[in-house]
Design goal:
The complex is a heterodimer of chains A (145) and B (149). With 145 residues, chain A is mostly helical. Chain A is built from 6 helices and 1 strand; from the N terminus they run βαααααα. In chain A, helix 5 packs across helix 6. Chain B has 6 helices and 1 strand; from the N terminus they run ααβαααα. Chain B is globular. The chains are: A mainly alpha (145), B mainly alpha (149).
Chain lengths: 145, 149
């Protein structure tokens, strides 16, 4: 195994991760909700009375994040994203992520961060499974084809 | 401030904090995500630090939440009730992981990247919403057939 030292950002990633942890902690203790993006978003597709306001408020906060960070942090603080996937791959990926996260009741935030923090066996299985699928797909795309 | 306004404001703040965390962590860079998923290539272990940092904090919050019945505002504490490890969970996670590995976007970073003005992220989020809608439709259909039988 070789480490990609040029792109490795242990401190920024740890600091960002701690912020994700603080956000998840606040959301359960202050608001009484699991911070899971696919669930928060998916719940808006079949809206129930009295169950949409918190979802919209959270998502609006998320949408404001790039602008807020641009105001507070110096230019170039966040490195520009490398999006190599073509348009067809992006569409297939979006469909799979949308359908899969709803069928499996969660994604990287709900199962990965909150579920593992709760020591939920169900989330441990889900996280292990989607990570394994991710490893397998990337291996197939980069080293087999 | 009315309780509802305070609730909405706190949810907005948490969403903002989460989005900023995603940007700082590198999760909104698909190249970084795929670098983590590429164990056989030049491996970028950063994402393990994201997960580690997040869980190290959230673990204590959920330990505290387990002993509580009410949230800070006095409302309900919505902890997941489902404990089933079934076909839906595993197949769903498999499909999600495949999509994640295909483009390097998961739901949160896709949304934040879209807000940062990335056209491909916008396309991803639209496709993701379509995927979610297909799930709702087929799920309802299959439930109707099950209850009819």
């Amino acid at each position: 195994m070789t480490i990609d030292w040029t792109h490795f950002t242990p401190w920024a990633s740890l600091a960002g991760g701690v912020l994700l942890g603080i956000a998840s902690a606040l959301f359960i203790l202050v608001n009484g909700r699991i911070l899971g993006i696919s669930g928060i978003l998916g719940g808006l597709l079949v809206p129930k009375r009295g169950d949409t306001g918190w979802r919209v408020a959270f998502l609006l906060g998320m949408l404001a994040a790039p602008a807020a960070l641009a105001l507070l942090a110096p230019a170039g603080f966040v490195s520009p994203p490398r999006i190599d996937a073509g348009y067809v791959a992006i569409v297939i990926a979006g469909l799979l992520v949308g359908y899969g996260t709803r069928l499996g009741s969660g994604c990287t935030s709900g199962h990965g961060v909150c579920g593992l923090s709760r020591l939920s066996p169900r989330s441990l299985v889900a996280t292990g499974t989607f990570m394994a699928a991710g490893f397998a797909i990337v291996f197939a795309m980069r080293h087999l084809f | 401030m009315k309780r509802n306004t305070a609730l909405r404001a706190s949810e907005l703040f948490v969403g903002l904090l989460f989005g900023v965390g995603l940007l700082i962590s590198g999760m909104t860079d698909p190249g970084k995500v795929l670098g983590f998923l590429d164990l056989a290539g030049a491996w970028d272990p950063s994402l393990a630090f994201v997960m580690g940092g997040a869980i190290a904090v959230a673990f204590f919050a959920f330990a505290a939440a387990r002993k509580r019945t009410r949230n800070f505002f006095g409302g309900a504490l919505h902890l997941p009730a489902s404990r089933d490890i079934d076909k839906r969970l595993v197949i769903g996670a498999l499909l999600f992981g495949a999509g994640w590995g295909l483009a390097g976007f998961c739901p949160g970073p896709g949304i934040v990247s879209m807000a940062a003005g990335q056209p491909k992220a916008l396309l991803f989020v639209v496709a993701m919403l379509v995927g979610m809608a297909i799930f709702e439709f087929t799920d309802r259909l299959s439930r109707r057939t099950t209850s009819a039988a």
